[in-house]
Design a protein that fits this description.
Shape: flat
Helix content: 55-70%
Number of strands: 13
Structural class: alpha+beta
Length: 658
């Protein structure tokens, strides 16, 4: 696609009140002093297409300012361009303005925001407002990728990208050199093919870096671990394990002998026999307790159970009595209410029977004013009398029906209350009888309890208790004697032996700890040798990947540089340690772009890159060259050039066709 700028018109855009740039699709030079609006031209063109300035910023001052630096209100800020796209003319316009609205009841309009109007057309006269979506679809149809637009219109854009991005773009300019091609080109890389397997070189390099880092960390940690183990290792030079094992066996046997002596002492005392006698006497006491007053106690238990049953029965009957009283009161209340209703109905019946009513009707027509005939008046009165008599008869029937219903309800409630009263009297008698029976049981229980004697007061019980106490005292004396003998053995024989036993165990533990520590050190040293070998293998693999990269770059570098006229690219650095560092540095006459080239050379290198990328992407668009005054011989491009030069002689912007 080829795009050329035919015309660009700015109105109230960034201080440019009105400026027309007529290029007719040719290369031009725009000259002017600083602050006369050269950069504004580039900003306007980018804003029209992408809503950004020439540096890619979305937020920048569009509005025109007054001398005090304040925004001038009520202005329309617009950019209008005529583009030739593949031989066809397109007109594009964008207008940014303030919205002022006068609300109902207010004299002045108030600011309510901004609006942007988008217009497209085949000519200026055919410019038609479009929705933002439609406008963007048109821009995307001619500029499908903003990145490609910047790469092919901004001489500085490519070299502003990160090295990886630049290199990726350059690699896309030439046919891909496969890993297989690189490996075949150098015999020493055949080993790399086996190491790669089915994986990619990048994944392999990542694994190498990860493994080298892990091995390095382990190699640094091993000496620290060995030193720590040596520092904590117990000194066992004076210890003889065989001798210590024998000493421990002898001491264990001596301790066992002492324990047997203690057991013999404990078994030789009469404590066990005394315990048997005590238990025998306690069984005799229990027999006395179980058989003392057994008949009277069984009868007493039966009476107590009967007492509880009568108390529960009285409580239940009292509860039922309360429920009957409550139901009786409720019925009495309803009887009173029903009687009042019956009296009220009687009064209504009497009044309705004695009621007399006279009827009359109009004698003249309300509509025409003529007298109504007498027979018609009589008919009307007769109808009123008949209607009244029917209504009165119905009311009397309802009163009679309600009265019968009330009388039936009163009779039912009265009968029910008579039954309740009978039940109340019956329950009251039963409760009184139960109370008398309960009192009789209580008296009988009281007599039985007073006649019973306590087992503790019997002679047999006192004799057995005395014998038990004597046996317990005898047991205490035997235990005290046993404890003294056992304590003597433990203190004078067993404790010294246990101390010797612990000392020997500690020495044997030190020997075991020392052996485990020595084994661990040997294990770590063996691992250190293994890791060193693995690290050397990874270093060799790293060397192969670097050689691969060098060879691949050598194969591609010449192909890439053939695409450019004045620019060469350096795609790797050989480091001091003979490693390889991926780079992407543009060079001109052997001077790196970022460290040595002046601004003029940078612009020409950028234009050379644009030529190559425009050809690759088949996309040619106007190139805005800012600070073009620094270049005495601007590099030729296939795309249209708009050179922006600073000129002290030009107080206002001037346009010159190249």
């Amino acid at each position: 696609m080829k795009i050329k700028l035919i015309k660009l018109v700015l109105d109230n855009f960034k201080g440019a009140k009105h400026f027309e740039l007529n290029t007719d699709g040719k290369d031009i030079v725009v000259k002017g002093e600083n602050n006369t609006g050269k950069t504004t031209i580039a900003d306007a063109f980018y804003w029209l297409l992408f809503n950004k300035d020439s540096k890619g910023a979305t937020k920048f001052a569009i509005k025109t300012l007054d001398n005090a630096g304040e925004e001038i209100n009520n202005l329309k800020h617009s950019v209008y361009a005529v583009l030739n796209i593949d031989g066809k003319e397109h007109h594009i316009k964008k207008t940014y303005s303030e919205k002022w609205t006068r609300k109902r009841g207010q004299a002045k309009a108030s600011f309510t925001g901004h609006e942007t109007v988008y217009e497209l057309g085949a000519s200026k006269e055919e410019l038609t407002p479009k929705k933002l979506k439609d406008f963007n679809e048109f821009i995307n149809s001619i500029i499908s990728d903003e990145q490609i637009f910047k790469l092919t219109t901004n001489p500085f854009w490519f070299n502003s990208l990160k090295q990886d991005e630049r290199k990726k773009i350059l690699m896309s300019l030439v046919d891909e050199v496969t890993d297989e091609d690189v490996i075949k080109s150098d015999d020493k890389l055949k080993e790399l093919k086996k190491l790669l397997g089915d994986g990619s070189l990048d994944d392999f390099k990542m694994r190498i870096a990860r493994n080298k880092k892990a091995i390095n960390e382990d190699l640094k940690a091993i000496p620290v671990r060995v030193d720590e183990i040596n520092h904590n290792m117990p000194d066992i030079q004076k210890y003889d394990k065989t001798k210590l094992d024998k000493e421990l066996t002898d001491i264990n046997n001596e301790i066992k002998s002492v324990d047997e002596q203690i057991k013999d002492i404990e078994n030789g005392l009469s404590v066990g026999k005394i315990d048997k006698n005590i238990k025998s006497k306690q069984l005799e006491v229990q027999y006395l307790i179980d058989n003392h007053n057994s008949d009277s106690r069984r009868k007493l238990t039966s009476l107590i159970n009967q007492e509880s049953e009568h108390e529960r029965a009285i409580a239940v009957k009292k509860r039922d009595l309360n429920n009957l009283y409550s139901e009786h009161r409720s019925n009495e209340s309803e009887l009173e209410e029903q009687n009042e209703k019956f009296k009220s109905l009687g009064k209504m019946h009497k009044e309705l029977v004695n009621e007399e009513k006279e009827f009359s009707t109009a004698t003249a027509c309300d509509c025409c004013g003529q007298d109504i005939p007498a027979h018609m008046q009589e008919q009307a009165i007769k109808k009123m009398q008949e209607s009244y008599n029917v209504d009165k008869s119905q009311k009397l029937e309802r009163i009679q029906s309600d009265g019968i219903e009330i009388r039936n309800r009163v009779n039912y409630l009265s009968e029910q209350n008579n039954e309740i009263e009978e039940s109340i009297e019956k329950l009251k008698k039963e409760i009184e009888e139960d109370k008398k029976t309960l009192e009789s049981l209580k008296e009988e229980i009281k007599v039985l309890e007073s006649n019973n004697t306590k087992v503790e007061d019997t002679d047999d019980y006192k004799q057995l208790d005395s014998e038990i106490q004597a046996l317990k005292e005898q047991k205490e004396q035997s235990i005290q004697s046993l404890n003294e003998d056992v304590e003597s053995l433990i203190k004078n024989k067993k404790e010294p032996l246990i101390n010797q036993q612990e000392d020997i165990k500690q020495k044997l533990d030190d020997i075991n700890v020392n052996k485990r520590a020595t084994d661990r050190i040997n294990e770590l040293e063996s691992k250190q040798e293994q890791l060193a070998q693995e690290y050397n293998e990874l270093e060799h693999a790293t060397f192969l990947t670097e050689e691969f990269t060098k060879q691949k770059v050598n194969l591609m570098e010449s192909s890439i540089n053939d695409k450019f006229e004045i620019t060469n690219f350096k795609l790797f650095n050989v480091l001091i340690n003979e490693g390889v560092e991926d780079v992407c540095i543009a060079m001109h006459n052997g001077v790196p772009y970022d460290s040595g080239l002046n601004n003029a050379a940078r612009i020409n290198v950028g234009l050379d890159i644009i030529n190559a990328l425009s050809k690759h992407y088949d996309f040619y668009a106007p190139i805005m060259i800012d600070n073009a005054e620094s270049v005495t011989d601007v590099h030729k491009t296939t795309s249209q050039q708009i050179q922006l030069e600073v000129s002290k002689e030009d107080k206002e912007l001037t346009v010159q066709v190249i």
